[in-house]
């Protein structure tokens, strides 16, 4: 998929080195962000990408926030290596109808999102773009685990002068 600043590709780790951070056949997602030296669509992109990465890395350890494993780079891109999930909450709600007549699942998922947001706030990170597309899910039997993602509009300021943020 693609977003405002980059593309996300599915990946599978096929290495077998003893020093590898991933198990063989690990399902991964790699977010590719153009580096500052690459042609830019706007002058603020560099600081926005740095803010996104630093905000996300600051809270990546929480079980309900998408984990960043590594940030790699070459001359043109930053490569952000994360776990890959089954889809996003919008897809689960609209396309798959997984919450229909399932109050317990709704409550469980909502509590996971609240815990993630509380963790962000307690660590001085304010997401500012909460929506179903920015919550990934992983189905494990009857259980659904969710992960907050996309910290592109996040701020480290409790009060922000930015009037407009989020998806319009």
TrEMBL record:
Gene3D superfamilies in the cross-refs: Transferase(Phosphotransferase) domain 1 (1.10.510.10)
SUPFAM superfamilies hit by this protein: Protein kinase-like (PK-like)
Stored PROSITE patterns: PROTEIN_KINASE_DOM, PROTEIN_KINASE_ST
Example of a GO MF term: ATP binding
InterPro entries cross-referenced by the UniProt entry: Kinase-like_dom_sf, Prot_kinase_dom, Ser/Thr_kinase_AS
Entry keywords, A to Z: Kinase, Transferase
Start and end residues of each Protein kinase domain: 1-168
A cellular component annotation (GO) from this entry: cytoplasm
One of the GO BP terms on file: mitotic DNA damage checkpoint signaling
PANTHER family: OVARIAN-SPECIFIC SERINE/THREONINE-PROTEIN KINASE LOK-RELATED, SERINE_THREONINE-PROTEIN KINASE CHK2
Protein name: Kinase-like protein
Organism: Dendrothele bispora (strain CBS 962.96)
């Amino acid at each position: 998929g693609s977003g405002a600043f980059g593309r996300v590709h599915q990946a599978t780790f096929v290495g077998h080195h003893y020093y590898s951070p991933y198990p063989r056949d690990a399902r991964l997602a790699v977010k590719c962000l153009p580096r500052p030296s690459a042609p830019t669509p706007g002058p603020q992109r560099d600081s926005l990408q740095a803010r996104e990465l630093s905000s996300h890395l600051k809270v990546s350890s929480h079980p309900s926030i998408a984990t960043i494993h590594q940030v790699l780079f070459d001359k043109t891109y930053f490569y952000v290596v994360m776990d890959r999930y089954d889809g996003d909450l919008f897809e689960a709600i609209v396309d798959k109808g997984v919450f229909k007549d399932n109050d317990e699942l709704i409550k469980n998922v909502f509590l996971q999102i609240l815990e993630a947001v509380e963790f962000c706030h307690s660590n001085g990170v304010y997401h500012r773009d909460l929506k179903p597309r920015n919550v990934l899910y992983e189905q494990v039997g009857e259980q659904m685990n969710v992960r907050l993602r996309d910290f592109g509009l996040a701020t480290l300021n409790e009060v922000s002068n930015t009037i407009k943020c989020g998806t319009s």
